[in-house]
From TrEMBL:
Belongs to the peptidase C1 family. It comes from Channa striata (Snakehead murrel). This is Cathepsin H. The keyword Hydrolase applies. Keywords: Disulfide bond, Hydrolase, Protease, Thiol protease, Zymogen.
């Protein structure tokens, strides 16, 4: 409670303590077994997965597969390790979406921030709130979900995205449904725009490796399972999740990839749940097996510079 600034009344306290104790048992049981990743307590440890899902994941079904994408792969060989955080000032710090299924906006801005920085040398934090408020005509649903590829289309057709500073994140809208969510985009303040969106052909994980190696970080979506909520470190993999486009419920950003000493290949992924979660806000997930559908709908924008 003190670590994550949680405050409960007496009744709520006992209810949360029961959930916390059960989650603690799940974590200890998992860590006592032979797994490629470890779990730990975090800011979600007092929540059931049902509650977590409602507050943090995409609740609207997403139809995200690009059966034939437009990314053209170069030829290998590919290096063993790629990490855009180490290549220069190309990745913004981990952000926190709060109680809102707006991960798709953070995946979008994270990718466009990097793409723009690689093209111009300037790393500018961009506005998630503009996407929540303004991109609804592109089949996005604010705090209920959306897709990076559709957000890139909005930015392209809308002629730009403002900075986080000029259009700040108001965050959790589940808690404040009456919150003003009208669009406040000012074209004169657009900081970046998008020439086009590049979809990577569905389930072509090699093309994702190609794009991350030679071009820039890429967005992807996958299905979050209950154990992922407790992820702490190591290479996440699951035998429970599905690997199809219709089951994805979370959007994130692949900033690189590597291989464990054990030989296990993984993606290096930027999440939007703050730095207290996972590896300072990042996680590794098994690469090469379309784990949890991560290769179902990956995309990135072309910068208009």
């Amino acid at each position: 409670m003190s670590q994550h600034n949680k405050v409960y009344d007496t009744e709520e306290y006992h209810h949360r303590l029961l959930i916390f104790s059960e989650n603690r048992r799940v974590i200890d049981r998992h860590n006592a077994g032979n797994h490629s990743f470890t779990m730990g307590l975090n800011q979600f440890s007092d929540m059931t997965f049902e509650e977590f899902k409602k507050l943090f994941l995409l609740t609207e079904p997403q139809n995200c597969s690009a059966t034939k994408g437009s990314h053209v792969s170069k030829s290998g060989p590919y290096p063993d390790l790629v990490d855009w955080r180490r290549k220069g000032n190309f990745v913004t710090p981990v952000k926190n979406q709060g109680f809102c299924g707006s991960c798709w906006t953070f995946s979008t801005t994270g990718c466009l921030e990097s793409v723009n920085a690689i093209a111009t040398g300037k790393l500018i934090p961009l506005s998630e709130q503009q996407l929540i408020d303004c991109a609804k005509d592109f089949n996005n649903h604010g705090c209920l979900g959306g897709l990076p590829s559709q957000a890139f289309e909005y930015i392209r057709d809308n002629k730009g995205l403002m900075t986080e500073e000029d259009y700040p994140y108001k965050g959790p809208c589940m808690a404040f449904p009456e919150r003003d969510d009208t669009c406040h985009f000012e074209p004169g303040l657009a900081a970046v725009s998008v020439l086009d969106v590049v979809n990577i052909t569905s389930y072509d994980e090699k093309a994702m490796v190609d794009a991350v190696t030679w071009l820039n970080p890429v967005t992807f979506c996958f299905e979050v399972m209950p154990d992922f909520m407790h992820y702490k470190e190591g290479v996440y993999s699951s035998s429970q999740c599905k690997n199809t486009a219709d089951r994805v419920n979370h959007a994130v950003l692949a900033v690189g990839y590597g291989t464990e000493k054990t030989g296990a290949p993984y993606w290096i992924v930027k999440n939007s749940w703050g730095t207290a979660w996972g590896i300072d806000g990042y996680f590794w997930i098994e690469r090469g097996k379309n784990m949890c559908g991560l290769a179902a709908c990956s995309s990135y924008p072309l910068p208009s510079v």
